[in-house]
């Protein structure tokens, strides 16, 4: 089941305090990016955050689950209504993640 575009837009808006947030359609669901760095997924109207040790102590509830069959576990974030909380999680995650590799020229 694909994600509802209204839910994707809502999560994108809720995370916007962390920087420029963009959702890109991937394999029927969405990758979510901050300032060009992928930090999570939206699958089946659920928000998943890449797991980092920096974010672990900030989580209100710690739940790990795969966003789709065969995927690695991500932090499953149920509280998407608290904008400040989501922005903090996204900022902290992005600071802990490596910079994206530059794209090769064709």
Write the layout of secondary structure elements.
Layout: H1 5-14, E1 21-26, E2 29-34, E3 37-43, E4 46-49, E5 64-65, E6 74-77, H2 83-96
Antiparallel strand pairs: 1-2, 2-3, 3-4, 4-6, 5-6
Largest sheet: 6 strands, antiparallel
Beta-strand share of residues: 25-35%
- CATH architectural grouping: 2-Layer Sandwich
Number of strands: 6
Tell the overall outline.
globular
One letter per element, helices H and strands E, the order comes to HEEEEEEH
CATH fold call: Yope Regulator, Chain: A
By CATH's scheme, which homologous superfamily applies? YgaC/TfoX-N like chaperone
Mean of residue pLDDT values: 93
Summed up, the domain count is 1
CATH class: Alpha Beta
Question: Can you tag this structure with a few keywords?
Answer:
single chain, 106 residues, alpha+beta, Yope Regulator, Chain: A, six-stranded antiparallel beta sheet, 6 strands, 27% strand
Outline of the structure:
This protein has 106 residues and is of the alpha+beta class. The chain has helices spanning 5-14, 83-96; strands at residues 21-26, 29-34, 37-43, 46-49, 64-65, 74-77.
Commentary on this structure:
By secondary structure, this protein is α+β, with helices and mostly antiparallel strands. The protein has a single domain (5-96), classed as Yope Regulator, Chain: A. It contains two helices and six strands. The termini are far apart.
